[in-house]
Amino acid sequence: MITSTITLCALPDAIWNKKTKFGSEVIDIHSFVVDALAIENRIDKGVNQENERARLTLCCSRLEAAIKSLSLQETKSPSEFKSALTSNYLPVVVLGQNYLNAIKLMYQKAEAKSGNMRLGATYYPPNLVEAHINAFTTLATELGLSGLDDVKSRIIFYQFALKNHCGVIEFQNPFTYQDQTIETQVSSVRVEKPEIIFQLQDEDEGAFDNEGEDASEILREQITRALQNAKDGKPCAVNFSNQPHNVITKVLNEFAYSDTGKLIKPTYIQVVYTDGSQGENFPLQCLPSRDEKDLAKLMKFPPLRASLLSMRHLEMDDRVDISWFRNREVSKARAFSETDQFCYRETKRQLEETRKDSVLLLHLYQTGLQPAVIGFYRALIEELLYRAKSAPSLVVIPIYFSKKRGYESGEAWS
Fold it and tell me: Domain locations in the chain?
């Protein structure tokens, strides 16, 4: 079939500010960007609309033409993005017709918000990237569009650009042949009050398959910005859906403890999922620092070994005593936020029941299913806050499995 696609191209900060040599090419787009922004400002003020719009079209065409002639490289991971820049290529990703349908729907349902974020513009200088993608992510989530692959890909690409101090240019490829029809159509999304049904899966399927330190660094930066926004009274949502469960646990552990080392009031960040649902706020930067001597004493107690979910990885059965959650109760077709809330309530109930015991040392053998992980650790932080003024009596050690390294212990929660 014949359809349109959009190419997103990331350009380093220096290119936007002055005439710059990039590899063997000389890029000079600064004057186009300055002119285009000035024209947009005049259009917003209602000055000479027809002539100014014609000038803006010409200016953007020249800007896009200057980029299309350069060396471009499609990237699908943070490491590929960095490698392209290092090798003097401009990172790009291609979005399908569904992205165009999505922004059309956004303007239909939220014209003011879409206009304020310059949705549909062809260029986003580095200083505009963060505000734009935060607003775009929030609106996509509100309208139930954040589960679309093209929307997810755009969000992640902009996050890569933000991290690498890049701006983004978007240009349309109007006539593209695709030998398969696009399965997910925006028209099928119910935006007034969507009934979100999503079959939860066990694997951590990120849109760009982020792994290791790359994924950790991205999530770490997202949470850092969310915490600062929360303190400033701004939107502070973090989407955990595309992150591996071990990365989620590792990074949350880094942020769970207070900077002062003392017990303080939590700072809450918002939790959103790619199916458009929103979980309960997550408490961070609140737990007192661990006492290594107390932790060493607790580690001498016999552990209770539990898999996070039953019937997920049967090879774990000979290693564990119980399953923390029953698979049939968790893996239902429902919104991610509902699964998150179920796992939170169930964990809260079970941890409260262990208060009568002297010590609980829990070895938690984790699998995927991000909402279950978020729900568990939200309840765990609340329980640790409850016990913070008493003698240490609770430790959770996450256990991860990888084909390369086998079973590994994560950082203790206590």
Answer: 2-188, 225-409
